[in-house]
Structures are given as structure tokens and as C-alpha cells.
Amino acid sequence: MTAVPLDPTPRVRPDSPSDGPRALLTVTGADRPGVTARLFGALAGDAGVPPLEVVDVEQVVVHGHLVLGVVVGALPADGPVDEEAFLAALGTLADGVEAATGVRVAVESASDRRAAAPGRAHHVTLLGRPVPPSAVAGAATAIAGVGGNIDAIRRLSDHPVTALELTVSGAEATALRTALAAVATATGADLAVEPVGLARRSKRLIVLDVDSTLVRGEVIDELAARAGRAAEVARITAAAMNGELDFAESLRARVATLAGLPVEVLDEVREHLELTPGARTLIRTLQRHGFRCGIVSGGFTQITDPLAASLGLDFAAANTLEVADGRLTGGLVGEIVDRAGKARALARFAGEHGIPLEQTVAVGDGANDLDMLNAAGLGIAFNAKPVVREQAHTALNQPYLDAVLQVLGFTRDEVLEAL
């Protein structure tokens, strides 16, 4: 076959991709420095192929094994380029690259694979400890079932949870979330959906619920145990978090059981607080990336204010227990931070720092967090009650709070660098 000669005359790239033949070059083999440079150097300087445009490139290295895909298009010189001759010339080029680098370079026609018009794409983050094959299979099947295509997959993290990010095009957001929610329920993996674009990494403020989110357990249950009313208060707390009781009403009822406790009990409970694993990593990483971080709690300022100070947080909002003569009165002071109050606190903090609500993140587990979760640009239900998981933007059921970072698109390397 006759090779098409190289025309050295510079050309201005047309506004639309060329109508000449296209080819896909797939490079596979052991990764080593210089493979990509060698391939593109050959494409740029080989006299046996016509002038080319680079239409698409994707590269990934999996445990030292390189997979590089390159789509090139022929730019016609003095007339149409013969596709058969074009592919033959690239085949000869590929043989030279293989001989020089030891990798394999396959060449095939891509002329009938013109890219479709760009549409809305989404990142699907799959998290698990571990990620079972059934979760990947289920996610892939669900994505295809709603008309989506997986364009790329990359690993975000392998510790403390494995997180894989799938870039999906062609699927409508609500249908995609619904389909993946069923996969998450069936496999036990977490699947979060976020639009592709700057909005995902433009988040600048995060608010965290405290009880059963930032810290393990419920502070009021610990206080009630010291008052001998643990079982009664635990029942009320569970009903309130499940959305079965009005939060403000349930809070007053629970606080009333604490009447007469010495104020020193607050110090004891605070000293025994246990942060959720990954909490410090989450906060430190986000702070290093310029986030404003704070807490919004239905708990008590006597607990949350010192906690916020110890973590270096920017803001905190909670209820205040009334104290008289060194003992709790069983009452509250000031405005109650209930379900609506949490959303107001988020809006207030965002406004004080000049951050639009769409650039905020909220994390919580109870029904009283729902207004806050839905007001934020991204609301994450963390080990939450069913009613909260169903209504939040996304849900995490991992035991590590820093899994939030992978939902935001941070890789494990970025986390380690920040720390």
C-alpha cells in the first residue's frame, strides 16, 4: 500500500473536527517513563502518516500496567485521505513504537465512532469496605438501564475505604440516583451522584451535626444516664431522630429529666466524648483546602463550644442548658436550634463568610438535620435514619467520617498531602 506523504505546511485547525478518517491507538504494557512521549513523538514526526489532529486521549496506570488510548484524525492535504492507507501507515508507526518501548500498540478504525454531542455528565462515587464485584456490576447495569454510559473509572482511595469514581454521561440525574440507590441497598456499598463540573470542587463551607455524626453517641443520653433516666430519654431521642416527634417538643421533654444534675456532669461528659473515626482528617483536610468548617447541633453549647474550640472550627450553633446555683434547672435558655433552626444557622454562617448556599456541604444523621441537608449545595446523610437517607442528596453508611472527602472528589493522595 502507498503511504500518504506528510505535508509540512502549517495549518489552522478547523472550527469543527476534520471529516477525514480516524484511528484509535491502544497502548498496553508495563508502565515506564517515556512511553507517551515516544508515541506522540512518532505521531508528530513520522513521514509516513498525514498531518494529524489529536481528537481524544485517556491514560490510566493500574498497578504498574499502562493503558493509553489515543484517537487521531487525518487532516486532508490536497484531497481525501484513503482510510486503508492511513491505518496501514499507523500500523507501521505502531510497530516502531513497540520495538522501541516494549509495549503493545493496537490500531483500529474509529471513523464510525464520532463523539455524540456533549450532554450533562455525572460522577458516581462507589465506596465500600471492601467494594464487592457485585456492587460494580450492579452499578454498571443500573447506569446502562437508565441510558447512561461509563466514560471513565478511577480510584480515589484504598484506605480507610475503597472509593471508585465513575464518570457517567447520558443519564438523567434523578433516574440515575434512584437506580443506584437500589444497588446500594442490595449490595451494602455506598453510591453517591454529583454533576461533573466546577461546582463539585467549588464547595467552600461545611457544617456538621454533632451527636452520632462528629462524635459517637448522643450527649443527652449520657447526661440522662447520670440522672437515672437513660431508658426514658433514649426512647424519646430515637423517636425524634426518626421524625416521629417534633424536635423542639422532644428536646424540652428530655432536658426536663436533667433537672437537679450538678453542672460538673457536663465537664465529665465532655471529657469522655469520642470523635467519629476520620473526623479530624476530614476537618484538617478541608481546612487546608480553604474550607470554613463548623458545627450545628441540637445539643448543648456547654459541650459544643469547647469541642469547636479544640478542633479549631470557625463557628458553632447549639442550644444552651439553663443553670442555677450550680445545677441544671431542666430548662433551656434562648432560641431552640431545632430542624428549622439548623437550616437558619447554615444560612447565617454562609452569609457571614460570603459563601453562596450552593457552595456549602451539610452532614447529619437525624430528621432534625433534613432542612439543613436540603438547604446546602450538598447534603450528606451519614449513617442516618432511613427517613434521612431517603431525602438527603446522598448517603454514606461507612464508619469513617472522612469518606465525605471522596464524595467531594478528593483522592487519598490529596488527603495525605494536606495532612
UniProtKB/TrEMBL annotation:
Its EC number(s): 3.1.3.3
UniProt keyword RNA-binding present: no
Residue segments, region Disordered: 1-21
InterPro entries attached to this UniProt entry: HAD-like_SerB, HAD-like_sf, HAD_sf, PSP, PSP_ACT
Enzyme class, first EC level, given as a word: hydrolase
Keyword entries, A-Z: Amino-acid biosynthesis, Hydrolase, Magnesium, Metal-binding, Serine biosynthesis
Record domain Phosphoserine phosphatase ACT: where: 121-194
Catalytic activity field: O-phospho-L-serine + H2O = L-serine + phosphate; O-phospho-D-serine + H2O = D-serine + phosphate
Cofactors that this protein relies on: Mg(2+)
GO CC list: cytoplasm
Record SUPFAM superfamilies: HAD-like (SSF56784)
Protein name: phosphoserine phosphatase
Lineage, uppermost ranks: Bacteria, Bacillati, Actinomycetota, Actinomycetes, Geodermatophilales
